[in-house]
Amino acid sequence: MVIPATLGLLVTYFIFHVAAGECPGEKPTKSLLCYLEEIPARFDPCLCTHLVLQTSLEKLTPQSELVKTARRLQETNPSLKLILQASESAEVALKRRGGYARAVSGAVSKCGLDGVEVALRWGKQTAGKVQLVDFVQTLSKEFSKLEPKERSKRSYKIYENIADDVVTPRWTPQGNSKKIARKAREVGSPEDSEKTTVTDDETTEAQQETSSNQEIIEEEEVPENGKQIILHLTSEPQYLAKNFDLKRLSKYVSFYTLASDNLTDSSERGLAYHPSRLMGIEDILNADSLVDLVTGLGAPHDKLVLTLPATALKFTLADKEKNLPQSPVTGEPVKISRAELCALMAEGEWTVERDEDLTAPYAFHDTNWLAFDDPTSVSIKGKYILLRDLAGAAVRSADA
Questions:
Q1: What's the fold here for domain 313-371?
Q2: Are the CB atoms for 48 and 74 separated by under 8 Å?
Q3: 200 CB contacts (<8 Å, ≥6 apart)?
Q4: Is the overall model pTM greater than 0.85, yes or no?
Q5: Per the record, where are the segments of Low complexity compositional bias (predicted)?
């Protein structure tokens, strides 16, 4: 099964000792999200921090087998978060965003879940940056209604640090206070022209909150609630820039899941490729470049979750003598389970190779060409997550 092969290796890098009464032994220090359509009978809930339930809103009920099994697993691991995946066309969801937010919140409440992953499907014509922020804000407010009335709010300031013509966002959570921020452009010396003042209605005194190379661009109180909002990010740069205001969304989002388990585009059509490369120099079809891109657009690194495939891709080579990545293939790649991968490689003499960074293993035999993750690649990706201080990892199709 894939859990020992993939999650077990990630847990090796993301662990610390915990007290008795929860899962025995050790527990991840980073988030480990497990995506499941069905829960295997021998699934170990202590290897995950989150279970993402992949089913439609219509099929999700407290009586559904998926929900009942997940709740039983939560009894074994009380720290386990149960997350609904809300997958819908972005055009449809954002057009009726208020109603869709209420439907998602209602499903989470009805089934006793801990949050939602918003995984919208973006079309070529969709441009919903403002609408997406409004939807996530509305969803956060709906979740706050599910919490006790005495729960506090978080006050956020968003700054822009301006240095060497590079704008870098910074988020500063404040205490329980009500503040109104405004930019004050005073006429006078050059030094005075860049001052920013903050009015605090509790102290009634203007305080200098920023230096000359910082500007408060927005301040807002955000309801604090116990439900998590996870936002799935597309891997296509043009859609990221057009549809995601990551600076504003980060006030409401617990994690961003990066689609690093299937990094491909039309340029690789008709070619053999690895769907989950960690590094790359000449293109953006690798996790490292994607992390750089989204942090540059305003996402905090400690909210980023890299996704890894539990499945493999099977290609048919057009010429068995041409077996390197980017070699011509016939037909479309076929996704196969971990069990199918192991059974296939148990027959015949397979040659296993990998990219220079060791994170993109592939195997070939005759005209068969396979791309997958193995213990070496998963271990390196786990170390990468720690070195870059990302939020954690996710395993797609953990029931494969």
A1: Chitinase A; domain 3 (3.10.50)
A2: no
A3: 177, 179, 207
A4: no
A5: 205-215
